[in-house]
């Protein structure tokens, strides 16, 4: 049960547990190191700040006793007070040094050194009482030299014992410091071992739960990416990677399902494309045949129509007034029908030639071209006001664009309001890589419901008796604009007259 629960642990939880155990171990090692370091510092303090000064004081104490003996000997021989000064100075130094040693030993309270200090004081006092003071005062019993030497040797022995005990204390502190140093080294080795063990376990966890499962998962993903969309993606790593593998496999299933739909849609699209290509090819061939038919039909109709028109006009000239009024009316109908048929055939022929007979695109200055168009339309209405501002240069075929403006401005002159002089304005504005051209007039205008019909071939919005024409002019304009890669539309926001916009490709700037 516990193994199963451990298997369900996430990688984060496992790493956290590992670091928690390692942290506790290192914390224990740290506490032990702190205690050991405190002991080591205490022992080093004993060596450097206590036993060292005590040993120095012991050496100086030995010298102080020698000074006392030397002073007594000199005074005994010379009875000079000056020779007694080393003795007196030695006594003062002795008391100071013994006091210093007592202060240093007070923090440790070592019984052996305290006993040594007591013994030194007792032996030194006995020497001074038995030897030094009788010599100084000269009143006590005289002690022979051998007895005085024995008393001073006892002083030396007591000082030597004090030094020996101080040395023992120092050696014990040195040994203890060495032991604490060894313990610190062991603790450092233990801490390094814990770190190495944690690193090894971390590498093992990463390799078993991350590296190898990720490598295996990447290999499975590569196989799926290579086209094996039916291969199930699994992972045996950490719960996070197993969850990731499940998500990736879900994505694979969705991709596989969508791929099936895409393949089916592609098959349908390819089938539809083939049908469209066949229809387009058929439509192209049909349009080509229709254009050829329109051109040949209109061209072949010219000759018999000219004969019909010529003989009708001849009948009208020769027999006008010689027949009854109805006959004259019939002949007039025939002449008018022949004329309209002639114009219709000519317009149809012009419409079919757009795009078939080309002179190549070139730079055209619209301002210069409109001057020529105005000259051509001058006879249509002498009172017309045709104007334009600064117009740009475009790329196109000049004959076709001339026809375009002749038709547009001609319509503005034709569909004028009664008793109102026609006003036509041509303006332009930039529209990306094209120029948007506007032709606007103050005529009768075009109703919004006819906006989609005005550009249809042979579409008329007014009776033939009201306005002449074949109804093909705006269809020719639309075909010319589309041939130049533009578009044409009716401005429905115009409040007076008609306003037509169309686009033409902009010419490159002159160097």
From TrEMBL:
Membrane-spanning ranges: 183-206
InterPro entries the record matches: CHASE3, HAMP_dom, HATPase_C_sf, HATPase_dom, His_kinase_dom, HisK_dim/P_dom, HisK_dim/P_sf, Sensor_kinase/Photoreceptor
Keyword check for Phosphoprotein: yes
Residues in Histidine kinase domain copies: 296-508
Coiled-coil segments on the chain, per record: 241-293
One Gene Ontology MF term: kinase activity
Catalytic activity: ATP + protein L-histidine = ADP + protein N-phospho-L-histidine
Positions of the HAMP domain: 208-260
Major localization class: membrane
Keyword vocabulary terms for this entry: Coiled coil, Kinase, Membrane, Phosphoprotein, Transferase, Transmembrane, Transmembrane helix, Two-component regulatory system
Name of the protein: histidine kinase
Lineage: Bacteria, Bacillati, Actinomycetota, Actinomycetes, Micromonosporales
